[in-house]
Amino acid sequence: MRALPVLLLFLAQPFWETKPPEKWTDREIDTVLHASPWAEIVGPTPEILVYLATAAPIEAAEGVLRLRTKHPMPEPDPDYNNYLSEHREETLVVAIPYRQPVRFGTAEEQRRMEEDCEMTISRKSYKLVGHFPPTGDDPVLRLVFPREVKRTDKAVTFRLYLPGMAFPEREVEFRIKDLLYRGKLEM
Among 59, 120, 137, 183, which is most exposed with the fewest C-beta within 10 angstroms? Predict the structure, then answer.
């Protein structure tokens, strides 16, 4: 009888807490990348995917997917990888895949993105630090924000302006308590 509560607790935990990434099924990887606490589909139509690219579960899922598939995911832009290796501790990255990266909007729309994108935590707003635009080889917009979120915060909201998209103004909120991975806040 003592094993039953332990078994129930084990079964209640999400797979990313109980299995190493290399043991995740293709369906589980898809869940992490599209429907986990670190990834949300945001409306209105056309709906878009917004995910926390620097969160360990997202990076692990992408890494396993690159190794596992016959047609691997493209590697992120080398400039982005270099930036991240130097600034990982002080920044976090919000990513939005673009279906048609050549339609990244006009120069005016891109300027507006730089001015309007912000992150809000407990009524305090932080501006965009920088961005990496989508390319033909890497069709993902990466928005860089300061790493100001703490485990004691309730939520973080990103107000986005996405050049070249129908309905470019989007908002997404991530609940901090849901962003824990193996006991650590992952963003």
Answer: 183
